[in-house]
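(Fold this chain)
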Amino acid sequence: MKIFFNFLFLFLYIFAIGEIGLRTISYFINISDIEKHKYAKKLIKNSNNPKLSIEHIPNSQFKLMGVNIVLNSLGHRNKELAIQKPKNEYRIYIVGSSLIMGWGVGQEDLFSSIMEKKLNLDENIKKNNKTVTVINSGIMNTNTENHFQLTKEQFNLTKPDTIILGYFINDAEIIRKKKDNLILKHSYFVSFAYQKIKSYFLGDTLENYYIELHNESNLGWLSVNKSIEYFRDFSKKNNVDFAILFLPSFHDFSENNKLNNLYSKITNRFSEMNIPVINTYDSLSKEFKSNPRKSWISRNDSHPNIKAHEIIANDLYMFFKYNIEY
């Protein structure tokens, strides 16, 4: 019994030191895993739609990774939409996960915000007396099935003219709806330790994990294919343009990148479905080939930074400039 209490005391001591230490450090320094924990606690709620898993909390805001994330009444990172869509307004609805949401980047520096400004300054759009509104509905820790369900659920509320699906190579992961775990939800230390242990037991290199994720028999990749067919058919039925924005891993942009064949496989599959693909790899590689870390928001977080968002915005702008009629 004495040994048991000794172990219990040691456990509680380590827990207390870890919890106090992480909370103190994270007050002064942005720790990516802790910031993501705060995001899940402050800006996320479980969805009533079983196929959505999670949603943003409408009209919420919180400072994360040094930037203020402000969400409108639909949970989007953009201005409030007019309920009655103006006749001269062209709406672009962009859906995806954390790279689309713009983790670690201020709202004015988001690719979607930059793209909106560029399009509204375009002479051809001005000639047609059009204004462009870009809707950023990205939510962290979601997959392609979730993205279709969110688009379908919000379609009549947003009334888009074009739908853009952001596809990152972990969007083929299966995400199951989880019940709230009070310890994980409220403890920085337990959440941080859980993420580190989870990463450790991934069991293989990140590149091999992504390749296996897109194996033809993988349930997640099969779900992606089915969801994108739903996207395509839903858009056609509603007379809306649809395209895919392909986003690569930001760890390697070299010619010897182990994922180059995977990128070709994915983008070719989408093209075979007769879906336009905006592939950002070449533009990002041109800028960051020699040092991919220059595209990261921080030393330990590979989400794209402001410069990378500018490049993504320009690729999208060029697509809309030459491929879409307003």
About this structure: The chain has one domain: 53-181+198-323. The radius of gyration is 21 Å. The CA atoms of residues 61 and 303 lie 20 Å apart.
